[in-house]
Design goal:
The structure is a homodimer of 343-residue chains. By secondary structure, chain A is an alpha/beta fold. Chain A is built from 13 helices and twelve strands. In chain A, the strands form two sheets. A seven-stranded mixed beta sheet of chain A has the order 3-2-1-4-12-11-5, with helices on both faces. Chain A has a five-stranded mixed beta sheet with strand order 6-7-10-8-9, with helices on both faces.
Chain lengths: 343, 343
């Protein structure tokens, strides 16, 4: 497996990125291509004693402040665009980047292209619930969605949970504000009917509407959402977890007795906190793109990059994209303009 | 101050409801009217040694499974409808109910009516952030919203934070999926322009788009949202808090040493958990109704009802509704059909 890593994307680039990639190369045996400024990458590789990684020079860097579409079109010699182009050309099996989410999404759509028939690519992070986690799809790629997009997200999330996370029969829920069928807005009503039909035909295991509280009780392995709501759910998760950990710290530091007590619990608490830590969890796949692309968190350290590379390799070897391609007819609504629609 | 309490609403009715109301009567000196089945309420009052509370008999009960509009229209002798009718007639200053949210909202709108000019009432719970908390408005009353609704929510949330929570200059943010002005969907773009104008004119203190992570960092005292997204944020908060507390318990019970350590921290941890506990926080105001109506959590115990009655009294004495009425012209968009629009 050969993973292409954008060495210049993210807050801790290039050092943490290169280190994480080297670790994956050494421990998992992945082949690695690093894109970015050669003179910055090579010394890190040398310091790590790594001779097996390939470097593809790219002079430009897309920053978090760049407007995504403009950046992807104008900065063609950036580490991000270069990585995606190598993937398109078949020089590697997957791309990992901790750079701008918007630019990665736009670049992947323009360069690598979507799977034929998929209307929109989606961000699908995994929430730390139950045995297999819950794939929350979409999570910010598409603020405005149609029922057909959500139908496609349901299939793609279900296939990802099955093929990459190993859940034998992922339960798919529609994120809503109540579990009753009639809850929510017009988008939810129309999507419910589509998912219910897919469930009835045995194509996915649809369990109906789910609430965020239910998701954290482990009621489903896939939660389908428009990107706006999904993004708010993800950021609320992050916000509450951080807020509670901070409060916990306050309790621990209160006096000498609490400090000693905290010391006893420290290791286990750290493990608990790490399940909400993006650095530990790895990356977020962009589902719907014709080859595997993984977005690592912007604040990724080397462990996070290691995990993201591992995830990319696992996704590349899973047969996920082939499965989406084989089922594409079930994931499309027939519309009059279908024949002429631009992919 | 005289507070009307729906004694039959909620999982623990009537016992916890009556006890909580009695406690408020005794400790805060509120006058209390309890609506519901006299033969069930009176023995609890007697057991509590309370002779000062008034009971208004109502034979029917609206359950969580009743369809709200139908229930409000057909169950006219229910404790909930009776409570709202007493409020309308001026027999009391506010209503507290732990019954069905939908029925309370519908009943309040039909019976007590909205403030003239307010398009929709909104649920506005307070998230436990910073010094004054953050009013999250709307949180489930309106799954689909127009920019004008959101403008009105912004004003009402700001006035509530100021008058009831005591924040001298509430910062108002628009819940979005990024802080940049162009983020989000069409609803957010149009609302942003309205809030920005209200901010520029010095009517509210608009701080721009906010993310859920920012809200938990304490970046604003009011977060404006459509009811769908707000509801997902609220339930995610509840879900994550519960999930983390459960994980924490697992860490504590691991072995004898962790159990002892947990014992040392117990009291402070409990206080921390209670900030996310609906029983401690009190109730959620229905803003936009012409008199104060407070929805207490369905699982309210007596402490929760006590807190909700206290909150109702504070809201009734705050001048909030008068302030909304005085500013109604700023909160309306001029539309051609304005003159003929039914309130």
């Amino acid at each position: 497996m050969k993973i292409i890593v954008d060495a210049m994307g993210g807050d801790n680039a290039p050092e943490a990125i290169v280190k994480g990639a080297v670790q994956a190369h050494q421990e998992l045996g992945c082949q690695i291509i690093l894109t970015g400024r050669q003179e910055e990458i090579t010394p890190i590789l040398r310091a790590e004693g790594c001779t097996g990684a390939q470097v593809v020079d790219a002079r430009d860097v897309i920053s978090m402040n760049d407007e995504p579409t403009l950046a992807v079109r104008s900065k063609t010699d950036s580490s991000l665009v270069r990585a995606l182009r190598l993937l398109k050309q078949g020089e590697g099996d997957a791309v990992v980047s901790a750079g701008s989410t918007g630019a990665l999404l736009t670049g992947a759509t323009l360069t690598v292209k979507r799977i034929r028939g998929i209307r929109r690519a989606a961000l699908a992070p995994v929430l730390p619930t139950g045995q297999y986690g819950t794939v929350l799809i979409d999570c910010g790629a598409n603020a405005e969605c149609s029922p057909e997009y959500l139908l496609q997200f349901a299939y793609m999330g279900s296939f990802y949970s099955e093929k990459v996370l190993g859940c034998p029969r992922p339960r798919v829920g529609l994120l809503n504000i109540g579990t009753e069928e009639e809850k929510g807005d017009a988008l939810r009503h129309e999507t419910y009917a589509l998912l219910e039909k897919a469930g009835r035909e045995g194509r996915i295991c649809f369990v109906g509407n789910v609430e965020a509280t239910g998701i954290y009780d482990g009621c489903c392995e896939v939660a389908v959402s428009d990107g706006f709501t999904g993004n708010v759910m993800l950021k609320t998760t992050e916000g509450v977890a951080k807020f509670l950990m901070k409060s916990l710290k306050g309790v621990f530091m209160k006096n000498p007795a609490t400090k000693i007590a905290a010391g006893v619990l420290y290791k286990d608490l750290k493990a608990m906190a790490s399940s909400f830590n993006p650095n530990e969890v790895g990356g977020t796949p962009l589902l719907g793109i014709s080859k595997p692309v993984i977005k690592a968190h912007g604040s990724s350290n080397d462990t996070a990059i290691y995990n993201a590379v591992k995830q990319a390799a696992s996704m590349a070897g899973s047969g996920l994209i082939e499965q989406i391609q084989e089922n594409i007819q079930q994931m499309r609504l027939e519309t009059p303009q279908e024949g002429t629609q631009k992919e």
